[in-house]
Each structure stands twice: as structure tokens, then as C-alpha cells.
Amino acid sequence: QVQLVESGGGLVQAGGSLRLSCAASGRTFRRYAMGWFRQAPGEARKFVAGISWSGGSTPYADSVKGRFTISRDNAKNTVYLQMNSLKFEDTAVYYCAADALAADTVVRELAGAYAYWGQGTQVTVSS
């Protein structure tokens, strides 16, 4: 069983930055691919970014490429999402998720591939 706890959300003006953190329990964190997803009101949960076990693969949604950076610290069981140049349309609840079945270098972008989810953290960008 893996427990994920997100933090770092909040209210920020357009053009600003936030860094989200996701702390994971469990000794096998380093064997999980990790993903960040977001869900705006009335919309489906969407893939934002992911990172493989060793960090060698980091796919991003087209809407955040060049603005967001995902990283992980396996010694701290933590994954991060640095969000720069935030836009109003980035407003959503952000969730981190763990995929315990992906091989290294693989990051899956479908929410259904992730067995473990955090409770979410709200990010609100004012225009």
C-alpha cells in the first residue's frame, strides 16, 4: 500500500510560479513511475507530467511543455512539479499518482494505469 500526500497548492497571479510536492510512504517508491494529473470543474482528470523510476523519462502534456518541470528525489520519497509562467487555464485540483507496474523508462499517461492517488491540492491562477 502506498500513501501519497500533495502539498504546495495555492492562489497565484498569472505569470507566477508554484512548486507542488508529493510525499510517498513505502520503501519501494523508487520502483514506481509517478504522475501528476489535474482536474478542472466539469472536466475529466488529465495527465500533466510523469517521471520514470530513475527520472530518465519525463513526458509532459503539450499544454505545459516548457513551463512545468517534474522531478523526483528517491532518497526523500518525494516527487515535485515546478510550475512556472502559470496561466488562468492551469487552475485545477492537482493530483499525484503512483504506477507500481510500469517498467523503468515507461511512463503511462492514462489515469487508469495508476493504482495509488493523493487527495489533491488546489491550484488557482488569477488572471
**Helical/strand content category:** mainly beta
Described by strand count, sense and barrel closure, the largest sheet is: 6 strands, mixed
Query: Helical residue percent?
Result: under 10%
Number of strands: 10
How much of the sequence is in beta strands? 35-45%
Can you describe this structure?
By secondary structure, the protein is mainly beta. Helix content is 0%, strand content 44%. The strands form two sheets. Strands 2, 4, 5, 8, 9 and 10 form a six-stranded mixed β-sheet that branches. Strands 1-3-7-6 form a four-stranded antiparallel β-sheet, with no helix packed on it. The chain is globular, with a radius of gyration of 13 Å.
Summarize this structure briefly.
With 127 residues, the chain is mainly β. It has strands spanning 4-7, 10-13, 18-24, 33-39, 46-51, 68-73, 78-83, 92-99, 116-117, 121-126. It contains no helices and ten strands.
